[in-house]
Give the backbone structure.
Amino acid sequence: MIVTTSQRAGSDVKKRAEQQAVSFNVPYVERGKQSVAKLAAFYECPVLLVTEERMELYDESGRSPFFFHPGSAMFRVKRLMNGDQDAFVQVSGLRPGMSFLDCTMGPAADSITASFAVGEKGHVQSIESNEPVAKIVQDGLSKWEEGPADLLQAMRRIQVKAADYHTYLQSVPDNSFDVVYFDPMFEETIDSDGIAPLRSFASYSDLTTEAVNEAKRIARKRVVLKDHFRSERFAELGFQQHIRKTAKFHFGTIESRGNSERE
């Protein structure tokens, strides 16, 4: 990866770009008049573009960048504010004051929705395996200014960590979170404008029995999986699949033993 700036970038933007290059231990390249596509082709690597407003991550084609946008979280949170239901919140059983571990953050729409659901006294930790993606989302969560105050506050409360969840889960103590959540890349593709730019940078490592067992150890209440409705992961990994007749993706849950006994 290389780091560059928008054309005609000011000194502040160039300084931020240079700082990002140092933090990722990659070269900083002066933009000049070259297009991002030409830079990506010449250096044969992704390009992190730093602008006045945001950061954008381009793959080797130099097209369709990934950048932060709350996406579906905007209307989902507004629906929750109006007293409507959200399938993800409902299946996860999220309530104010609960803790939520998102093992596959991506664009963070589910993390944002969860953060709103658990409120000021709750806690959301989001894990992203791709370090530049994690940085872009973390930066966006701290700077986004459109939308109701409750949405913005929910975004600010999320704690982001760049890590591979398979390794990260091994370091988390027992019963550390109420809910542990997985949303791996689907085995069958669903058209989505929000996820499309992320496909080049997403992790395609499969969800393993070992990772689910770690999640079960960590979760006080339940482990939740979001996947394509035809996915075999639900049955293979022991999740109870919640059928949603008109949806292309379903949720699955594994109740923690103590939680099941209480219920």
